[in-house]
Write a structure and sequence with these properties.
This protein is of the alpha/beta class and 194 residues long. 24% of the residues lie in helices and 26% in strands. The protein has 4 helices and 9 strands. It holds the Pfam family Peptidase_S41.
């Protein structure tokens, strides 16, 4: 998600939630796979708001700067920092297993989206180490009209575990083919089927 336009953010979050709602209402879902491989980043908030349909509301993680912890609020029907509401659908079975997939091309807000699922009791992660851009950028305007972005924070998951670089999956799977039937998907399906 590479925009910070409120209407596009809401449309993106609603698209994710509508797909989840359609799958969940038309099927008996026994597990979810959230594939964040090759998600290079952009704007984390619409992704987290869209995927909120899969999880309970609450604090999904934190930005940490010095001793200051800034929580990521993950609330149904809301995109953090936006006024307009989004679809409020929640899956029927909130205890169903969720497999999170990521790889070395999962970076920045893609990694923040990964972190928003970590340490939930029904979640397990699969793939390869992430890119290691687990920071928040601050914008500094320059006198020539340019901008300088500096990483000034790191992140913590909901339990307070710090991520100051790469995120390591619970189960490393070395297949880098990134197809709909690769070994990462197969390993996740095996876990979901148990």
């Amino acid at each position: 998600m590479m925009t910070f336009d409120e209407n596009k953010d809401i449309q993106f979050a609603n698209t994710i939630r509508s797909i989840i709602e359609k799958i969940d209402t038309e099927n008996t879902v026994t597990g979810w796979i959230v594939d964040l491989r090759h998600n290079g980043g952009g704007n984390m908030w619409p992704m987290i708001a869209g995927l909120n349909a899969l999880v309970e509301d609450g604090t999904a993680g934190y930005f940490v700067q010095g001793k200051l912890k800034i929580p990521w609020l993950n609330e149904n029907g809301k995109i953090n920092g936006k006024q307009k509401p989004v679809n409020t659908y929640k899956i029927k079975n909130k205890k169903v297993k969720i497999a999170i997939l990521f790889d070395g091309k999962t970076g920045s807000s893609g990694e923040m989206t990964v972190v928003s699922f970590l340490r939930l009791p029904n979640v397990k992660s699969f793939g390869q180490k992430s890119a290691g851009y687990t920071t928040a950028n601050y914008n500094f305007p320059l006198s020539n009209g340019g901008q300088l972005l500096l990483a000034r924070t790191y992140v913590m998951d909901r339990t307070g575990k710090s991520y100051k670089g790469e995120i390591t999956p619970d189960l490393a799977v070395s297949d880098l083919s990134n197809t709909k039937n690769d070994n990462v998907i197969k390993t996740a399906i095996e876990w979901l089927s148990k």
